Amino acid sequence: MAVTCPVGPGGRPTGAEPVPRLLTDPVDASGPRTSQVTVGRQLVAGRAAEIHSVVDEALRTDPAVLRLRLHEVELFDAAGVGLLLRLQAQARRQGTDLVCSGPPRRLVAVLHRTGAVHLLTVVA
Length: 124
Hints:
Elements: E1 3-4, E2 21-23, E3 34-38, E4 42-43, H1 48-59, E5 65-69, E6 75-76, H2 78-94, E7 97-101, H3 105-114, E8 121-123
Parallel strand pairs: 3-5, 4-6, 5-7, 7-8
Antiparallel strand pairs: 1-6, 2-3
Helix pairs in contact: 1-2
């Protein structure tokens, strides 16, 4: 079962489909050797391979910190939560700290209920 998060005021423009992507801002205020990946609207089983591929690309740059931006997530399911845990384990094996930033409240609530919040670094 997927959970839908409410869209903010104004919704999204027609045809706008945020997808997983590596952010390549040359000046990163997040700190040295920080890479950022935006997950997009859907943190679901059907997007897991695409998200994983973008995270793999980011990890190839050997960052000290990988910031996984979740602010656009509108739909997630159990497979998406599991993906966050697998990505965290993959990053840790490589010596990279994974930080999940800006998750919607419903996702945070599920992370708390499942105990996954104790395994992930989650920031507002």
